[in-house]
Amino acid sequence: MEGLPGKNNNKKNSKEVAVVDGREIKELVENKEAFNSFVEHKFRELDLDCDGQLSVGELQPAVADIGAALGLPAQGSSPNSDHIYTEVLNEFTHGKPEKVSKTEFREVLSDILLGMAAGLKRDPIVILRIDGEDLQEFVERPGFESEAVAIFSQVESENAPLSKCLMEGIKQQTVEHGMPPSSDPWVVSNIIEPAMQELFSNQPDNTPTQETFLAEFKKLLAIIRRQLQEHPVIVAHTENNFDGSGVKRLLANKFELDKLLDSGWKEVPKDKHNKTSKEYLRLSLDKIAASADLPPYGAIDEMDEVMNEAFKLVSIDDSKAIDETEYKKLLKEILASIMLQLQGNAIFVSSNSVVHEPLTSASTLLNVPSLSVSPTE
Ligand SMILES: [Ca+2]
């Protein structure tokens, strides 16, 4: 895969300030008494006009808090995350401009929190504090110059101006190098652009030699390091390696697998001969996904390809009617195919997003202990 930070986790631990793994969230929701009083308290706080129902407007702070707890940037800052905010709101309102009762609020909140907890269990969020120290170490490392030269040789053939070469260099620095994610628009406008302006305030933007590039790249990273020292950036980092081991575990656990297949069969629509259409296997796989440590279909392109391969294997698109035995057999074949593909070629996925406010103050809805950021220094 392209653009992934290498899996060298050696530097990350020093700056980890919290690991959010969903355990506390699950404990909260499963403790009926604690969760009821939590809902009670939150509902009262949100119900501004005290009519016992939450309007779409009154729900907004809850939706914003859920977003903050998920490590999303603020609403309105990116179409991708705004889509998730809309989804969260729709969970409460079912897409209609209706008011939400306390019972509904409790149910949806419990679903969302349990979903988050399950997601976090598979895919814990590590909160990193990027304060310039790692970046400095990276620049001082013996391998730095050869890495910089390699970046330069990629762009020099195009006779690119210095600024373009430097941008290319910055783009290739990752969280592992102590650089906040350069794909984040906030990082571009608050860190990279000001640093570039400072660097170019007293020099023209010519095509550089290798020596110039090296010297200016170091200067640029030094400016960024100083910015980070003054204003550390908090980044929510997730990584996950899909290697098929979760599917293997599930396939080996006959009791759990049978239970999942039974409930899957119960849920799919059937014709009068008690048969279903092959196309529902897709839906059934989605229901099983979490138990097999797989992401939902549509969430990760590379994983979708693996699932599509498995669907092809059972010719899912021929819409043939299948009975219960065939249904279960095909679903097991799909799982086995996914497992074999991932065992042969594991898929590593990581993401980094800047947390714009400390999670402690941003997420008042979900202020369970694991979600608060407490610097370890
Ligand atoms: Ca109200």
Describe it.
This protein is of the alpha+beta class and 377 residues long. It has three domains: 20-128 and 357-371, Recoverin, domain 1, CATH 1.10.238; 132-231; 244-345. It has helices at residues 23-30, 32-46, 56-69, 79-93, 102-122, 133-140, 144-156, 162-171, 185-199, 210-230, 245-252, 254-267, 280-289, 301-313, 324-344, 359-362, and strands at 16-20, 125-130, 233-242, 276-277, 321-322, 347-355. The chain has a four-stranded antiparallel beta sheet with strand order 1-2-3-6, with no helix packed on it. Strands 4-5 form a two-stranded antiparallel ribbon. Helix 8 crosses helix 10 (210-230), helix 9 packs across helix 10 (210-230) and helix 14 packs across helix 15. The protein starts with 15 loop residues before the first strand and ends in a 15-residue tail after the last helix. 32% of the residues are buried. Residues 1-14, 358-362 and 367-377 have low confidence and may be disordered. The structure holds calcium ion (CA). The site of calcium ion has 7 residues, from loops. Residues 34-69, 302-337 form the EF-hand domain. This is EF-hand domain-containing protein. Keywords: Calcium. One of its GO terms (molecular function) is calcium ion binding.
